[in-house]
Amino acid sequence: MSDAAGHATSPAGSGARSARLDPVRIAQVLFPFGLLALWQVLAVALGDFFVAAPLASFGALVEGVRSGWLGENGGVTLLALVYAYGLAVVFGVVIGFLLGLSRFAYAVFEPIVIALYALPKVALYPLFLFAFGLGISSQAWFAMFFGVFPILIFTMSGTQNVGEVMFKVGRSLRLSRFQLFRSVVFPSILPSMVAGLRIGFGVTFLGVVLSQMFAAKSGLGFVLIQSVELHDMPQLYGLVVLLTLFAFVINGAFMLWERRLTRHRPETG
Amino acid sequence: MSFGAKVRLTRWAVVLAAIAALEVMPRIGFGDSITLIPLSEILPELFEMIASGEMTEHLLATGGAFALSFLLAAVTGVPLGFLLWRYKPLKRTLDPYLTTYYAIPIFAFYPLLLAVLGFNIWPIVFIAWAWAVVAVVMNTAIGFGEVPQVLTKVGKSMNLSRWQTISRIFFPAAVPYIFTGLKLGMVYSLIGVIASEFVLSTRGLGYLVSYSYVNFTTAAMYAAMLLILALAILLNWALGGIERRLYGNV
Amino acid sequence: MHIQIKDVRKVFEGRGDEKVEALSGIDLTVSENEFVAIVGPSGCGKSTLLEIVAGLTEPSGGEVLIGRDPINGPHPEVGIVFQQESTFPWRTVLENVEFGLEMHGVGKKERRERSLELIELVGLQGFEGRYPGELSGGMRQRVAIARTLVMDPGVLLMDEPFGALDEQTRLILGDELLRIWSRTEATALFITHSIEEATLLSDRVVVMSARPGTTRKVVEVDLERPRDSSVVSTPEFGRLTGEIWEVLREESMKTLKGQERGGS
Q1: Domain limits of chain C?
Q2: Which ranges carry the ABC transporter domain (chain C) (predicted)?
Q3: Chain C residues with CB-CB distance to B175 below 8 A
Q4: ipTM of this predicted complex?
Q5: What is the CATH number of domain B53-248?
Q6: pLDDT digits (tens, 9 = 90+) for A82-132
Q7: CA nearest neighbour of C5 among C46, C53, C40
Q8: Least CB-CB distance to B175: which of C76, C79, C90?
Q9: Cα angle vertex B141, ends B139, B144, to 5°?
């Protein structure tokens, strides 16, 4: 609406509006610094019993690297994450693709899969502990169980949405099955699949951290719970920020990939 | 048989087969008999726990935290979504952060909140709220943004006041999106509450699962799991029904 | 109530210094109770012209008078029907038609009475309680027409109201529109890209040029009223549409060539 947009173009100071510098861009860059400043203010206002200062938290992480606990537990978390994500990708892509190929299978399973995605699956973690024992396998399979659904759902709907006409084009050019898959079907599915891979990664990571908070002896989730018991606030704040930044960076990489894939495509609803 | 009927029939068959497997697999000795219990033995245990009042405390704790966090998410999320739509630069600034929001393992904040707020209901409510609210905010903002321009032209051609345009055109037109946001918010609130309770707490259905696991009272653990899943399925089903009725008119 | 369009111009500001001239000096007078149709190649600015008359868009130059009032914002005597789906999906047919009256504080009883009257006029009696989603596209456009007419406008503007419908439905709804219009006293300005529809409905057909839009030719339609779509098969109708097409074809070719040069 024009009057809504009217608010958008009221510059605070006209001198600040150069042609190159978009104020929104500047605000986007400044936003994390704003959060950092807020954190510092809260630390001072509430005291270090509640809020560890940014510098102290960073110091705790440096100390963690030096004494080795960060590398050790971070390694466990990373290993579980790679293990879990590998499983989630394989299962999600393969099952999603197969279900997406048939209109009937898609119609039958789509609501079931979406319903499963929306369940509080955390409560089922003991089943994984029974099946795989305490350790990295149970964590990985549990996190896989979190992350597989978005990958599966996006791959499934991407496959289902490959237009019938695409197959007809392929057939009229007498492509082999492999050619059809590699040159027509796969490129059509890819953008939607990558969106699934991105969201699936976030959920898998969440699953790993969650699982390590419960009945674990190592991993960053375990350290988090330990820090609560020891009331080690710098360590707690440092770890939370570290995990958040890690998720942010990986997600950003996936988004760049997505943007590259959809660069040449017209926007669709 | 029509395509739709065949689909529904097959879907039910799949669901029933899954339930049957839960009954049969433990009986034929899949897994060992202590860790897997057939469905027909879990159900009486669940009813027994409900009847004896053992479940009441946990049910109330979970229900209370869920209701509170969802209400907070709705009450804060819809106005925030509206503001975001109204002030485009704000929305454009926050967009990259909002879209990455759900990639963050928000549960990492739960221990932190426990340390700050103590072992009570508030860390749970806060986490569940934090998980739910962004879905409400984003869907509300999208809903207002997606109102077809022609509808606002109709309002303008009739000389409506700004308030009338917002309350009589924008808001009702955005309702389906806001509802989707609230639906997601509800699901996320429930997941948030159960997960927090499971990881570390003193009451609630999630706590009951972890407590029973640690104490090897496997039957009670399965009963609590079953109740959680049943409540979540019921919630999703009810929301789906309301949604169909809402969209039936559109 | 008559419409006077005096030397109306419109220039759209594109990115940077780019400017697109949509309308260059349109002059047109529509007299009281006259039905004028405007046809023109796509992108000639006919919708822009209509929105200027409706007070929804500001002209870059010139002025529009409704009766004696210069337009600067929506005028209470002007009603407009859009091509796009514009019924409110959350309101029933009756509530849709009542909308404008409700917003302007007309009492419940009166607005119900007037709305039911209009619903009957557009032939939707029996559908008062239905939602737009339950109706066909043609029926929804009739709801939109009733919603506009219930305000009793002296001027009725229509921007391809049947543009999204198929040719047969369009002709039949054209008949309906003629019947409805003959019952109102409204002055009508109708935009379409269908020559047949324009000829069937109007007293005069204005052919607009390719962008920037000007009036290329005005064709008097001297077919007897009341008329209906059976006139389509008369030789007189054929002569008129032929005359319009001759001009319109030339202008459409210009538009096509322009697009090809533009390379898109």
Answers
A1: 3-77+154-262, 84-152
A2: 3-235
A3: 90
A4: 0.89
A5: 1.10.3720.10
A6: 999 999 999 999 999 999 988 999 999 999 999 899 899 999 999 999 888
A7: C53
A8: C90
A9: 105
